[in-house]
Structure formats: C-alpha cells, structure tokens
Amino acid sequence: AEPRSVVARATPITPRLTLLVLRDITERERLEEMRRDFVANTSHELKTPVGAVTLLAEAIESASDDPEQVRYFAGRLTAEATRLGQLTSRIMNLSRLQSAEDLTELRDVSIDEVVTAALESQAVAADSAGITVVRGGDRGLYVRGDVQILIEAVGNLIANAIAYSPAGGQVGVGVKRADDHVEIAVTDRGIGIPEAEQERVFERFYRADQARSRRTGGTGLGLSIVKHAVQRHGGEVLLWSRPGRGSTFTIRLSAVEPAGAVTAHKKSKK
Ligand code: ADP
C-alpha cells in the first residue's frame, strides 16, 4: 500500500524521477510476487512426497507381521525420503540464489576445476545410465565467481543431459573462449525440447510433459537453479534444442585473467 502513495505524491518531481520511482515500485512488486509464488509452488510440491512418506510409514506399521512387506515399504520409504531431502536442498539453494544476498565466496575460479567437479558429481548417474561423457575444449580459463554455485549449475546441466538421453548415449561437455567470454556447453542427443517449451523449462517446477511421463524423480528445479546461478554471475544461458535430435545448453560468463600465476591453482583441491 505504502509504495502507491509515493506515486500519488510524485506530482511535483520531474517526469524522469517519477519514472524512476515507478520502476522501483514495479520491481519491488515483482519481487514480492515472485516470493509469494515461490512459497505457494514450494508448499504444493512438498505435499506429494510428504504425503507419500506418511502413507508408507503407516503401511509399515500395519504390515509389521509380514517381514517381506515391511522390507518393501521400507525401501520405498527410503527412496521417498531421499527425494524429499533432494527437493528441500534444491529449494533452499534456489531461494538463496533468488534473494538479494550477495554472493560471498567470490574468487577467480578455474573452469577446469568447475568442470572436473561437476563431472565427478554426475559420474554415478552416467555410469548407471550407461552413458559416456566426453570432455573437450579449451583449458586454463577463469571466471570471477562462487565455485560451489558454478559446480552445481554445470552439474545440473550434465545431470539433465544424462537423464534425457537414451541408454548407451553420449554426452559432451565443451569449454571455449569466445572473445572476452567463457562458454561451457553441455550437449546431448536425447529427446530434445519442443520450441514452445524452450523458455518455460527455466521456470521453477516446470517439467515438459514428455519428460514427465518418461522419467520420475526430477524436481523441475534444476534449470531454474542454473538460470539464477548464471544470472548472479552476470552471465547468460543459451539453449539450442530439437525434439528427437538433442539439446545444447551453453553457459556464457565473462572471462578473467587470474590474479595469481597460472600455476596457482595447480594444487588440486579435494
Ligand atoms: P527436472 O528435475 O524435471 O529435470 P529441470 O528444471 O532440470 O527439472 O528441467 C525442466 C524440464 O526441462 C525437464 O523436466 C525436461 O522436460 C526439460 N529438460 C531439461 N533438460 C533437458 C534435456 N537435456 N533434454 C531434454 N529435456 C530437458
């Protein structure tokens, strides 16, 4: 209510100032709306797994004299609880990225380090899907950023490339320098995304129908996290995709020359 009255009182100031005030209010309203939507979406998305956990716990109680059944329900309970854990941690990450809080861990980040860690985080998934991940391109590039957030963003793209590829497929992770930018491209030859959905897949909790029926277990938050993570770094995410042909997601960030010597990052982190 209070911001509107600012507009009402804006008559004496110059048109330019009025415009600035208006813009500021629109931005504030937009943020407030985003926050409200986020809480609503989140509560809705949490209801399903929480409901499942409750039902499974009840099923275990009533099946207590049948060890076979208890084991079966307990297995499903563990799977649901794991998914709930993944969902909550993603929600927290996204909410942190969307908040006005500054990124605190800024430093010169080696893209080699980011790609290595992102690949490691998806190694088990690639293995169990029988997918070969091929890494290539330029080495020794740096950006200014938060290494954990960048690892998560690239990891999410690799996770999707694996998840939406046919078993036995190939996924590529390529890095290149383009003028004063670094591009990290993740390519698959999987199901692809229809043009009409290409913008929407970056919305939180959005999942293309095709994928919904093909694969359970996703959260619909991965790409939203990628988008916000990259935006917080002043970069952008580009998408090329054709249904049936595959997809390439490219993260573009400003390149920096590392402050220290090129060898400064050689001590590999564990
Ligand atoms: P999810 O957890 O469902 O994968 P994401 O936010 O990561 O959530 O992705 C949103 C939707 O975008 C997915 O449900 C899927 O429909 C589509 N998508 C994302 N990555 C790919 C890809 N590499 N190939 C095809 N579809 C994809």
* Span of the ends, CA to CA: 52 Å
Query: Helicity range of the residues?
Result: 40-55%
Order of helices and strands: HHHEHHEEHEEHHEE
Structural class: alpha+beta
**What is the count of helical runs?**
8
**Which ligands are bound?**
adenosine-5'-diphosphate
Radius of gyration: 22 Å
Broad shape: globular
Q: Strand tally, please?
A: 7
> Roughly what fraction of the amino acids lie in strands?
15-25%
Largest sheet: number of strands, sense, barrel closure: 7 strands, mixed
Could you tell me the mean pLDDT? Answer: 85
Organism: Microbacterium saccharophilum
EC number: 2.7.13.3
Subcellular location: Cell membrane
GO biological process, one term: cellular response to phosphate starvation
How would you concisely characterize the structure shown here?
This protein has helices at residues 2-8, 15-62, 67-98, 111-121, 123-128, 147-163, 209-214, 222-232; strands spanning 107-110, 132-137, 142-145, 170-178, 181-188, 236-242, 246-256. It is an alpha+beta fold.
Helix and strand topology:
Layout: H1 2-8, H2 15-62, H3 67-98, E1 107-110, H4 111-121, H5 123-128, E2 132-137, E3 142-145, H6 147-163, E4 170-178, E5 181-188, H7 209-214, H8 222-232, E6 236-242, E7 246-256
Parallel strand pairs: 2-4
Antiparallel strand pairs: 1-3, 3-7, 4-5, 5-7, 6-7
Helix pairs in contact: 1-2, 2-3, 3-8, 4-6, 6-8
This protein binds adenosine-5'-diphosphate.
